[in-house]
Prior knowledge:
Blueprint: E1 3-8, H1 14-25, E2 28-31, H2 32-43, H3 47-51, H4 62-65, H5 67-82, E3 88-91, E4 105-111, H6 114-125, H7 129-151, E5 164-167, H8 173-184, H9 193-214, E6 220-224, E7 227-232, H10 239-251, E8 258-263, E9 284-287, H11 291-303, E10 308-311, H12 314-324, E11 328-332, H13 340-350, E12 355-360, H14 365-373, E13 378-381, H15 386-402
Parallel strand pairs: 1-3, 1-4, 2-3, 4-5, 7-8, 9-10, 9-11, 11-12, 12-13
Antiparallel strand pairs: 6-7
Helix pairs in contact: 1-8, 2-5, 5-9, 6-7, 12-13
Amino acid sequence: MPVITLYNGIFCNEEAVARDVVESTGYRLVTDDIVAAGAAELSGIKINKIKKTFSSKTSVFNKFTHEKERSMAYVKLAVAKMIENEDLIIQGYAGLLIPRTISHALRVCLIARMIFRQELAQKNHKLSEKESISLISQDDHDRSEWTSILYSASDPWDETLYDIVIPMGRTNPAKAGALIQENLLSDALRRTDESKAAAADFLLAAETGVKLVNAGHNVGVSAQNGKVVLTINRQVLMLSRLEEELKSITSGLPGVMSVETRVGESFHESQIYRKTNFELPSKVLLVDDEREFVQTLSERLQMRDMGSAIAYDGTSAMDLVKNDDPEVMIIDLKMPGMDGMEILKQVKQTKPKIEVIILTGHGSDHDRQKCMDLGAFAYMQKPIDINVLSQTLKQAHEKIRSGQ
């Protein structure tokens, strides 16, 4: 039997349609939450971080950590393993990861006009008009970003992405379910030897992608009959050395017959390829109102392969703590508004695992003791020796990694 993928706009009776197909076919329903749980089990990454893969919002630290790419690699692997033998209906973002070369997948899209979705949201979910419009707009934006990443298609409802697009404003769930079941009988959706081989290629590419991302590399991966192609989409200072390393990592994997490296369309972008170094902190948040000082400090840390982001006041810093989970914070003690002491206190109350280094040019022994009592990792005087600060950051990172 074919695999079914169900991609939909929010408030399009998608749950009722999925339930109808499951009851009629006996298929197992796999949601994005189930895929994320599978990816979390495979990777050891927390499930809430895996789920962020499907969001259009990307952490300010991601250019250093590549966490989103790592999560995506494991999501692909989870999907590739799930579709090996089972009859599934995959509802949500994850189903679009299945490549078009796998012909035994029926790709279904459920969408309706905005007015229908608003009315459904207000009627079934008791939302106001403003709330429903906001939720629909954000969900459509996330889905647009997803199809743009995967297929360079900014319209998530582009009919060329699917085998069936069902207008839910004119189709009730039972009729939509019947239409999906009818299309399952198509000869074009049979599991042929060629389609099974494509599924095996998808799994091999996913396994290769995980191996590479865990070695700190972020490259495109595809496979065909055991031939793996790696695509580099950033400028590289020493391309031949990188190609040799990628081939060395990939060649020994089971099922890999040969490895080819290519440069992609984005190879000449200004961003330089940066291998992730898991031994160094890549999520350092600098908080200081002295803009020139903190910008220079950020650049000097990045030159040492430590990823950093900047906030110029306490409120912005706490927003980043809430949304982006820094590992280590370097905070100026004396700032207008929310000062470093108050930031330290709030961080340790809300995210106690974040290590905090206090920097000050005007502190006292009393301030130092108070900061250490509040849980600061270190208290350091300006002007700071960058080598001493780098070593302190490494020690804080090691403490986080060891779980002490």
